[in-house]
């Protein structure tokens, strides 16, 4: 099990959420700010199997690029999001 933490510009957030939900991905969405991408961001948390990683990365890229085509806006940078992959194989649920 892996945890993909994906920090994405707010411009892309709604489209990414919609397209990935349509493809069956489940995610947790957090509003975030900071100097990382220099403006408003959304952080998505995806719990995935390692075998799903390449498909998820392709879906993220496709969602961002399709929005740019729809809105006729090109990214000013080479990246649309920054992500971190964390090993979650030893994660344990909290008991209350």
UniProtKB/TrEMBL annotation:
Keywords: Receptor. The keyword Iron does not apply. It comes from the Bacteria. The keyword ATP-binding does not apply. This is Cyclic-di-AMP receptor.
